[in-house]
Amino acid sequence: NVVMNIENLHARIGEKEILKGLNLQMEEGKVHAIMGPNGAGKSTLSKAITGHYDVEVTDGAINYKGQDIVDWEPEDRALEGIFLSFQNPVEIPGVNNAYFLRTAVNAKRKHLGLPELNAAEFLREMKRLVTELGMKPEMINRSLNEGFSGGEKKRNEILQMMMLQPDLIILDEIDSGLDIDALRAVSEGINKMKDGKRSFLVITHYSRILDYIEPDYIHVLKDGRIVKTAGPELVAELEEKGYGAIEEA
Ligand code: ADP
Ligand code: MG
Ligand code: MG
Question: By residue range, what is the domain housing residue 196?
Answer without folding.
Answer: 2-245
